[in-house]
Design brief:
heterodimer; A: mainly alpha; 2 domains; two-stranded antiparallel ribbon; B: alpha/beta; Rossmann fold; 7 helices
Chain lengths: 238, 217
């Protein structure tokens, strides 16, 4: 279903707000399900999207395990003899974390189904200043480039004979500085070049901008927006 | 050391680059690789290094599939100079740039610092060893990256467009450095459009033609 970018932006904003406010597992599961349905509705490739984030999902799993292992408060959930292995609070917090992260992933996926130009236009028509809307979209479109930059830096570091897996723990922190200093330096250089190019092309030269594209909501957009608002209102006061 | 590409095919999504490519490189040779923009010169270098997996065929380094060798081990045998070599600088000072991999891997031998300084001198590297890497000129940065590759004493170098960002004086200086390496028995695959530079340095020339056909020239 082709939806107006503004519907996606507002719905994602409402759902992520709910994900932050709500602490009840049933509510968080409901929000996750709504996100999943919405992602399916806007034709986000859910399975391949999740497969692309395998590493991130593995990190979530690890944080979940750490959460349930080290949270000692609350009623015991699993114990061996007198030793409490998992508490209900630990399990609850762990599941809350995983569900919140899933909601964020689905929301990012929903937004990725719109072209960045449409997202800027959506933000502008929502009365967000163009400069801010443009910066947000540029920042989003630079994430894959940043990813490539980190990948190239790790490759270059490996090629210097550094086996990242075999570095002593005491030297691990220093290794991060070797990785992030060049990445940050190159990113800053790119940002500087980009800002100069933008200025040279007349960015912010005139206060008022016109656009060749004007987004219009249709009945389905309005219906979905109303539904999102109703869900937000209901869940907020339940 | 020998690099062997056997019936290698490779394609980027929607764009085939190589089809059944065969190539054997004796790592004592100095080979110049030319071809038009986008024909796959850099891709060939990346395939040899194992950065990219071939869709078909095999690439072996001394009869061992290159993809099964960890990158840090390949890096000790083959020095790779990226086209954008600035991503190969990690430290804030010149000497630290050469020493840090040895420190990290606990491989620092006595006299390492002197060895680094001697290498920098042999590369005609003018700035002080404690100079900041961020303030070096492009030519100096490239020479420092070369030094960082040579300090591990690789037996082969792959240089991707080494003259692209250099002026004629720096190009001449680079040529002298590479000629010295050649005389010391280090083989090279030099990817470049600069035919004059390649003619002065290489013993064998390869050209990638449209459709990924490799031709000896």
């Amino acid at each position: 279903m082709r939806l107006d970018p503004r519907v996606k932006l507002i719905t994602v904003c409402l759902l992520t707000t709910l994900a932050v406010i709500k602490t009840d597992l049933v509510n968080l599961a409901e929000i996750s399900l709504i996100c999943l349905l919405f992602a399916w509705l806007v034709k986000y490739p859910i399975i391949s999207g999740l497969l692309k984030m395998k590493r991130l999902l593995a990190t979530f799993l690890m944080i979940f395990l750490l959460q349930i292992m080290f949270n000692r408060s609350g009623v015991p959930f699993l114990s061996v003899g007198r030793v409490v292995l998992v508490t209900v609070t630990g399990l609850d917090l762990g599941i809350q974390f995983v569900l919140r992260m899933l909601i964020l992933i689905f929301c990012a996926g929903i937004l990725s189904t719109s072209h960045s130009r449409d997202l800027i236009q959506g933000l502008v028509q929502l009365k967000i200043p163009y400069v801010i809307a443009f910066m947000v979209t540029i920042a989003i479109s630079y994430i894959p480039l940043l990813n490539k930059e980190i990948h190239d830096t790790v490759t270059a570091l490996n090629l210097r004979g550094v086996n990242l897996k075999r570095i002593a723990i005491s030297k691990k922190i220093r290794t991060f500085s070797y990785l992030f200093v060049p990445v940050i330096m190159h990113t800053l250089e790119q940002a500087q070049d980009l800002s100069i190019s933008l200025e040279m092309r007349g960015f912010r030269l005139k206060r008022q901008r016109t656009s060749w594209k004007n987004l219009r909501m249709n009945a389905a957009d309005i219906l979905l927006l109303a539904l999102s608002g109703a869900i937000f209102g209901l869940m907020l006061f339940i | 050391m020998q690099i062997k590409l056997d019936a290698v095919s490779f394609a980027y999504p929607g764009r085939p680059v190589f089809e059944d490519l065969n190539l054997s490189i004796d790592c004592r040779q100095v080979i110049g690789l030319t071809g038009s923009n986008g024909c796959g010169k850099t891709t060939l270098g990346k395939l040899i290094m194992g950065f990219l997996p071939p869709s078909r065929g095999s690439i072996c380094l001394d009869q061992v599939p290159v993809r099964s060798i960890p990158l840090w081990e390949i890096g000790r045998r083959i020095g790779y100079l990226f086209q954008n070599f600035t991503c190969q600088l990690f430290s804030s000072t010149v000497l630290a740039e050469l020493l840090f991999p040895f420190e990290l891997m606990n491989r620092q031998l006595p006299g390492m610092e002197e060895k680094c300084l001697a290498l920098l001198q042999s590369l005609n590297f003018k700035p002080n060893a404690n100079a900041s890497t961020f303030t070096l000129s492009m030519g100096e940065k490239q020479r420092l990256v070369l030094a960082s590759l040579l300090i591990s004493q690789p037996s082969f170098l792959i240089l991707d467009e080494p003259t692209a960002s250099l002026d004629s004086r720096s190009t001449q200086s680079l040529l002298e450095i590479l000629e010295n390496q050649k005389a010391a028995g280090v083989g090279m695959l030099v990817i470049s459009h600069d035919r004059v530079f390649l003619d002065a340095l290489c013993d064998r020339f390869l050209t990638i033609e449209t459709g990924g056909i490799l031709r000896a020239t």
